[in-house]
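Incident log, structure service

09:12 report received: a user says their structure output differs between two submissions of the same chain.
09:20 pulled the input from the user's history:
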Amino acid sequence: MAVVEKIQYSEEFLKEENIANNINILWGKAIPILQHRKQLYDRYTRKNDTSDVIVALEFYISTIASGYFGGKEPQYKVKKINETQKGILKKVFEKVFGEKNNLDEFQTIIDYITKYNDNGSFFYDCVKDYINTGACYGLVYENKENEVVYAHTSSLTSVAIWNYETPNQKIGLLRYWTENSNSGGLTVHLELITKDYKKHYIDGIEQKSIKESHKTDFKEIKEDSKDVLWNDLPAFAVENPDGLALFENVITLIKKHEQVIKNNANIFQYNDDAKLKITGFTPDNEAVIEVIDENGDPKLDSNGNPIMIKNPARKLEDDAILNAKIFYTPDNTGDIDWVIKNINDTASENHKKTCLDLALMISGVPNVTDQGFTNADNSSALEKKFFPLDQVLQQADKLFEKELLRMWEMITDRINLKKNMEYDFRDIEVILTRNLPTNNQEIIDNWLKLRGLLSDKTVIDHLPYDLDSESELAEMDVQNEANIEKNMQNMQKMGQDIDGKILNIQQDNPNKQFEKTDEVKQQNIKQSDTISKKEDKEK
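09:34 re-ran on a clean worker, output below:
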């Protein structure tokens, strides 16, 4: 079955007046793509694999890559454009940039929306689908509580439709699901979303299974049709340009790796069930004998040949030999030995290791049992081990960053339209961070060294803790004010006024305070001498 990498049509194809005639064609294009993704997903899970030996390297590759790329949720920061940049942009483009946004207000709105939508879960689900099937999708909508929602939808049931522009633009999203009919068949449902409408179709021909060759007859459910009130297609979609899952190019190597393990297992099993070879000895009973009927005549098969069976007496004789502690041969040429297969363990292990190393090398995933990985005792060493995977995922990084920014463009336009605001989505910076073990103390020290060069807000935002910089800075202001007030009170208690002048000092003789101190010292010395003399006299 040939696999189409992506579905492409002109926007005219999806026009509302044309789609009724084209929906069956569109579904026919989607089936091979969806079935191919199902095969890839089955390779990932291996739940339906009935092989004797299963080494799920696909699962390992997917888990490591998904956790590395999607383990930390993306951050969205509103960038601040300095006055020099504003001047240059205004001069060149004759437009004002960065003045329509209230940065703190815009950032607060973004943070609220991401928390409401469980941003980290959405991102990880999309990354996992992309790694396993080469595509991922999400829906953007406004719920009954007027909250902006972006939700993940499975790549096994969704496919995007693109136009022929350069670069290609998404013009539709097709989703399907099936329902069991009363007769035991399947009823296929389709949902088609464009920037203008959302339509629901049901196949009028019941199917036993979903196949490209099956005839379909989709009819629209008119009451489910809705107008789309967004300025763009309200969907998130990232598709690998080559239509590849991360492990797809190494499936052959994974099969070879499993075959080596299976061959070794078969050899061990064969040797475990090995036959005993005895020379120089003739058993008393034949291995097979003829079947005799009640008259003592041999039974014949349809061809007139005697029917032969294993001789029970021979089996008893063989069992006695196998269980005997000592076996005697009648002459000097006799011998006894097991018939086994020899295995070249070194060659077998080298072959297995080669398949494993090549599979991980091509996919870019490090081997966590490798000595170089286990000896990586700091974050810098770990980053080097993950360098190949980082290169493999560079394309995914750019595709996700672009699509996430496009999603926020739609959300920002929606907010501007409903709340009469003028936020600019171009001020949003999408930050994708790799998920690696980090040395928190090292990160803290490095960022604290930048205090004075960077604002305290920036330093707090980059500390490896879940801190709200605005709240922390506000708490610091309250704390500093309290400290100042307390210090002033302590200064007054120590005999100082607000201006820092020493009280009880006569201005006409500034040395008088020190003279008084000397007099006190002399009196203390005299009193000490008197006490000492008194103690000596008593002795």
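09:41 both user submissions now match this output. Likely a transient worker issue. Closing.
09:42 reviewer note: The longest strand covers residues 170-180. The chain is about 45% helix and 15% strand.
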